[in-house]
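Archive maintenance. Older records in this collection stored only the sequence; we are now back-filling the structure field for every entry so that each record is complete. The fields below show one back-filled record exactly as it appears after the update. Entries are processed alphabetically, and Abasic site processing protein HMCES is next in the queue.

ARCHIVE ENTRY
Title: Abasic site processing protein HMCES
Organism field: Tachysurus vachellii
Length field: 349
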Amino acid sequence: MCGRTACTLAPDEIRRASRYRDRSGHQRQPQWRDGDAEKYRPSYNKSPQSFSPVLLSSRHLNKEASVDECVLATMRWGLVPAWFKESDPSKMQYSTSNCRSESLLEKKSYKDPLLKGQRCVILADGFYEWRRQQKDKQPFFIYFPQDQGYKQNEMKKDEQCEGEPRDAEDGGAWAGWRLLTMAGLFDCWTPPGGGEVLYTYTVITVNASPNLQSIHDRMPAILDGDEEVRRWLDFGEVRSLEALKLLQSKSCLTFHPVSSMVNNSRNNSPECLQPVDPAAMKVPTQISASSKMMMSWLKNGSPGKRKAADDAEPKETEEKPPSAKQKSKATGMLQQWLLGSGASKRPRT
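Back-filled structure field:
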C-alpha cells in the first residue's frame, strides 16, 4: 500500500534530479509540459487527490517525439478512468490511489490504460507507511539509500544533456536527494459536458520485500535505475505483458521511524521526514546511515525548495501546524542527537 508520499524539491530541482541516460548512453534532462511546473506544489506530506510530478514518454503528447524523450507532467493522485460518466470525479465510490500488480488485467479501470501503454513513473522523495503495534501505529519514511557523495547520473567532464546547454544556473550533475521512482498508470478524463482534461495516476503495488514486511505486506513497485525506468516508459518497444515483468518486490529501499505528526495530512514541514529516537519507541528499530544524509539535505537544501514546500495544497483538517519556533527547537534537538548526544542509545548501522 502507498497512501502518503513526500516530494519536497522545487520544480527546477525535480527536472535536474530526473536526468537519465537513453539507450545510446547520452544524458537527457526532461522538460516540464507547458504550464505543469506551476501546477506542482512541493510537500512533505502528500495524500491522495494532491498533485505530484510524473515522468512519461513524450510520445503520449507528441507522436513525432523521439522514442528516448521523456516529459515531466503534474497529475492528480487517484486514477479517474476515461470512461467515468459523472461530472465530478470526487464522486467515484472506490479508491484508485493504488492498484495491485496481480489484478491489473482484471479491472477495467487499470486494464484499459495498461493496454494503451499509458505507463508512467511517479517521483517522490519517498513514501510513508504505518506499522501496527499494540494499540497504535508507528509511521516510517521509506526511500532509496542516500550517499553523501551521490550524484545522479554523474556526467563526464565535458558532457552535457542532450539538446540542453550546460550553464552555471543548471548547476551540473545533481548532487541532492535521489528521487524514488515508482511504477504507475495514468489516464485522461474529460468532463461529460466538456472542459479541461484531467490527468490522473495510480501507484502500482506488489508484495513487500523481506526488509519491509515487518512494516506492511505491500509496497510500491519500484523501478531501480535508468534501464528499468526506460523500459517501463517505452510503450512502443516494450509491450504491456513484457513490462509487467518489471513489477517485482525489491529490497533496495531503506527506512526510518518518523513522528506521528505525519498522521495528519495537514502537517507539512521538515519534521514529517526527520528520524525519531528509536529509544523512545515502544518497539525498538534500527535507523540507517541514510538518515544522516536526510538531515543534511533538510538543513542545507536550497531555500527555494524550503519556501516552495510551505506553499502546499490545502488539507482536510484545520489543525494548526507547528510554529517556526517549535520547528527550530525540534530540528536542533534532533540534529544534536544525530551528531552524538544520542550515541549511547543509537544502534550501529
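Update note: Confidence is low (pLDDT under 50) at residues 149-171, 302-349. Residues 324-341 form the longest helix (18 residues).
Entry marked complete.
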